[in-house]
Amino acid sequence: MTIIAPSILSADFARLGEEVQAADRAGADWIHIDVMDGRFVPNLTFGPPVIRAIRPATKLTFDVHLMIERPELSIAEYAAAGADRITVHAEACLHLHRTIYQIKELGLPAGVAINPATPVSSLEPVLDDVDLVLIMTVNPGFGGQSFIPYSLEKLRQLRELLNRRGRSHVDVQVDGGINPSTAPLVREAGANVLVAGNAVFAEADRKAAIAALR
């Protein structure tokens, strides 16, 4: 089953609650929330107050992706604001294993993300502990970027590693440059959770846009 998680990074910020509801009606499975701090990535987006404000707009899973330095200091705040699952970057965590279990201790599934230049092999020490792995298919920080083709090889490497370790149930997520052309490629390579921003929110018919990604 392919999970489609529209990223509100591409939504109309002036109508964020309505945009979330529109994605829900269009058939989204999760709502992806890209949190950026202006330090780990060169942009600044949402914090816990925004997540708390839009939480009543839908019952869909809030998939919170923390692109921030020292995420361990604020994970509890995001959980309290309404996050249903939290993903942190391996590159941003001094003690990655500890941070993963900090998320789990809050009762949430824990994900780990890696940037395009980070090898899949760097995740081997934590693959038995995570519920989701996010392969960034663009450099994080901005929406609307082009898909990096080498990401397909990284997805294949990750799926092989997970299968070899008896962890085939772990979700493999992709974020960046996902559209009707790249979606079948990443699915074939092993991804089952597709984050899409412009491919959903820039389209007038969002139901058709989400269907085209499946």
UniProtKB/TrEMBL annotation:
Binds 1 divalent metal cation per subunit. Pathway: Carbohydrate degradation. GO terms for molecular function: D-ribulose-phosphate 3-epimerase activity. Keywords: Carbohydrate metabolism, Isomerase, Metal-binding. A divalent metal cation binds at residues 32, 34, 65, 175. The active site is at residues 34, 175. PANTHER family: RIBULOSE-5-PHOSPHATE-3-EPIMERASE. This is Ribulose-phosphate 3-epimerase.
